[in-house]
Amino acid sequence: MRTPATANAGPSRPVQILVVEDDETIGRHLDTGLRNNGYAPSWSRTGSGALAEATQSAYDVLLLDLGLPDMNGLDVARMLRARFPDLLILILTARTEDIDVIAGLDAGADDYLVKPFSMSVLLARLRAHLRRRPIAPPPQDPIRLGDLVIDITARRCSVQGQEVELRPKEFELLAVLARHAGEAVSRETLMAEVWDENWFGSTKTLDVTMAGLRRRLSGVAARSARVPDITTLRGHGYRLELD
Ligand code: CA
Predict the structure, then answer these.
(1) Least packed by Cβ within 10 Å: which of 130, 147, 233, 239?
(2) How far is the CA of 21 from the centre of ligand 1 (A)?
(3) 140-177: per-residue pLDDT in tens?
């Protein structure tokens, strides 16, 4: 159902992203989030591992943590920039000192994100950079489930051709469920993908947004329209049912 973010140079293939991050939680979150959004990530936990991996496979993007256990991330950036001039390098740093950002950009990075950052911000930055490069991902095909059509690229949702006006978070919630249609999606995954990876507070906002989404979908649907149900999975999350 999900459409890979593909490189348009040559045969269609997903954008290859090398994630270099020693923090297990952040690394797993990045790996899952990127995979769920059609990218093809590989994950290295060390600088030396990343250097070895980068020479084995053709990567389009490097997501690089600066604080690595075995070497300075800036050196990794410098070495890979020298070897791969077209590689898009995004630095992930917990450091907010301007000097680190400057050093990172001087070392060959194209951009940086200061932790904690949200997955949606990272994805937006990636899209923005990739648009300007020959590996820009093409628009995703709309997802069709019965009479419900979700156009993620255009951020539109319709039932039998009638537009459903959704709030931004309602749309993002629906988009995540639609990409996993027929699958159980946990509350944690939804919180991480729609809100923020560092969300430790109440998840009541999820319930409120879900209630709004259901209301809007049922409000617009004609009696004869086939709109998939969103099933509540008690103690776990939700599932958008396949038609
Ligand atoms: Ca680190």
Answers:
(1) 233
(2) 6
(3) 789 999 999 999 878 899 998 889 999 989 999 999 99
Nearest Cα to 177, choosing from 118, 230, 234? 230
Rounded CA gap, 168 and 70, in Å? Answer: 41
Over the stretch 196-221, which tens digit does the pLDDT of each residue have?
Answer: 655 556 678 899 999 999 999 988 76
pLDDT of 8 reads 43
pTM as predicted: 0.55
* CA 237 to centroid of ligand 1, rounded, Å: 31
Contact status, residue 61 vs residue 15, Cβ threshold 8 Å = yes
DSSP, collapsed to helix, strand or coil, labels residue 231 as: strand
Q: How far is the CA of 16 from the centre of ligand 1 (A)?
A: 21
Distance, CA 121 to ligand 1 centroid (Å)? 19
Distance from the CA of 133 to the center of ligand 1, in angstroms? Answer: 28
Cα(198)–Cα(111) distance, integer angstroms: 21
Domains of the chain: 16-131 (3.40.50.2300), 143-241 (1.10.10.10)
How far does residue 171's CA lie from ligand 1's centre (Å)? 33
C-alpha 233 – ligand 1 centre gap (Å): 35
